[in-house]
Specification:
Helix content is 40%, strand content 17%. It is α/β, with parallel strands linked by helices. It has two domains: 247 residues, 3-Layer(aba) Sandwich (Pyrimidine Nucleoside Phosphorylase, Chain A, domain 2); 88 residues, Pyrimidine nucleoside phosphorylase-like, C-terminal domain (Aldehyde Oxidoreductase, domain 3), CATH 3.90.1170. The strands form four sheets. The protein has a four-stranded antiparallel beta sheet with strand order 6-9-11-7, sandwiched between helices. Strands 1-4-5 form a three-stranded parallel beta sheet, sandwiched between helices. Helix 7 links the parallel strand 4 and strand 5. Helix 2 packs across helix 9. The longest helix has 18 residues. It is globular.
Amino acid sequence: MAMILTGKTLDFGRGPILDKHSVGGIPGDKTSMLVVPIVAAAGFTIPKTSSRAITSPAGTADRVETLCPVSLAMEEIQEVVRKTGGCLVWGGSLELAPADDLFIQVEYPLGIDPMLLPSILSKKKAIGATHVVIDIPTGIGAKIKTRQEAYTLAADFLELGQRLGLNIQCALTFGDQPLGRGIGPALEAQEALSTLMGAGPPDLREKAVSLASMLLDMVGVANPRNTAENMIDSGKAEKKMREIIEIHGGNPKVKPTELPIGPYHASVRSKQEGRVLWMSTESIVRIARMAGAPKEKGAGVLLRAKLGDSVRKEGVLFEVYAERNTKLEAALKLADQLAPMVLSKKPEEKMVLDTIPEKIAHEKTFMIDR
């Protein structure tokens, strides 16, 4: 409550106010760019404030910024929400629970994250949210590794939310690999827009529809799953997203292919035939950041193979994009060192996934993205 009271708050003069937030931990999670237009197209209010990347290749604000400005003032946010029902803005300039930004400056260099719950929920309360879905990616590639850890965190969210007068539900989501295929601001924005247009990867659509239907169910919508799917299939969610882009100050007619991707790119190929048995999301993140993401919006990684996919020898595992050739070369060198994907024809044929210290060992990446 102190974190909320020391900053500004928003009052939209109507309710309910819906919101969705991820605790982070997996790259490529551009779900908010679908959930907001789905929920707003269904007739509800969902003002989404987001952070920029701290340790990931892209935060929601970085992704959306490739489509339109995200640094809006309080009055501008209220105008966007009044006209469209939703927004996708950077929260860093709004002074919503500003103490959190100071905490992060201390937490990140120390490699600790004790303020996760108050960090997230103070901002939700400050923006006036009444119903919130918390996404908790869980798996070997995520910040939250086990279901037990996820259940404990979810229980804490529910209890703290109740004390703050917030109606909260938590979703434990698949966190063993990146979401979708694009990793990096422009690549992810392309993918989000394509999915709203009826294409895009199925895992991204499934996660967005599931989280949106949870929110719709919380406010009493009959057949919430069908409603969420219909918002995409009917084109209403895409139309809503383009309305939001226009009022934010972007081009509402933009096509996914028109978003500028780094001109320097190269493919990383498999040295053997087999199925993708395992991948290191941490290594994928490091490669994307070495290529220039998130500061260079056209940089990143495009996955051509994911868990379970069959790949022939010399088949493409992923592509690296960069805005500068030196960045591309550095990212490719790192990709060769890290070898983030393990392939095998059968799992029992590949029981050793990695060796240390024969293979270059690196410090573990600390994930603190909001």
